[in-house]
Amino acid sequence: MNTEISFDAPLPPAMATKAEDAGVKKAALDAGSMFMLAVLAGAFIAMGAVFATTVSAGSAGLPFGVARLLAGLAFTLGLIMVVVAGSELFTGNNLIVMAFASGRISLGALLRNWIIVYTGNFVGSVLTAYVMFLTKQYTFGNGAIGLTALNIGEAKTSLDFTQAVALGIFCNALVCIAVWMCFSARSTVDKILTIIPPISAFVAAGFEHSVANMYFIPEALFVKYLGTPTFFATIGKTPADFSHLTWDNFFLANLAPVTFGNIIGGAVMVGLVYWLIYLRKVARPSAKAVPGRGAPAMPQAEALAKPQ
Q1: What per-residue confidence (pLDDT) applies to 9?
Q2: CA dihedral 302, 304, 306, 308 (to 10 degrees)
Q3: With b meaning 16 or more CB within 10 Å and e meaning fewer, what string describes 227-265?
Q4: For a disulfide at 258, which of 7, 83, 141, 208, Cβ 3.0-4.6 Å?
Q5: pLDDT of amino acid 282
């Protein structure tokens, strides 16, 4: 009986197996639990966005990169809560494609998870945005937070289609790398330290995250259309100054292309790539060594896991 205890972090081949097993479990959740966990994830990501917006307000005097870094560090709160507290996030769940590629779940189960979770994320994010609007936090700092929210929403709804897709690709590649690396974590602290660098990087670089935008843009829209005249007088702007910030542009110019890009970046560039490396079935050679060629080759994942 092997009683050896190891404190080493799992190597990538073992991480791939854990990611695949997690995908099977996520796909098997009942619809009610899946939806409620998705609403929580939308709210968690929204709270990270609230933190990032607050930190960004009034940061005009800082160098651009420093201001973006501070916003990125604040935003990591969202994914930390998603991973540690437990919830279902559409962008991270793009990794379920690994279980599908191995034939352990059906295409229907994959799409069921993505649709239910995406819908729940939307509900949680938009509800959080509306409740935040009711707090009138946008008026804090002489309207600096509201102005920051409006500027963020205007910028995000001004993207052209190709740009939005490309920014979405890079964003979810980093998000899914963060989730992927969490499969090597041995503790909560490991997970938190693993999440911070890639999530800070995507925010600082200005990449586009579909679920985060389900908070950022509706919050800006609520401020634009429901904000008080006193607020706009304070910031010296009018709703007309944010011409791209409309509900149509939220869905068509941002959410649709960014979601498409997120799927490419997460499911294809991370999930399928690691599946191809570690989980795809490879032809096993005969146990008998070929004369003149030494011992038979090990299966791919086993060879990669073998200490050098």
Answers
A1: 87
A2: 160
A3: beeebbeebebeeeebeebbeebbeebbbbbbbbbbbbb
A4: 208
A5: 60
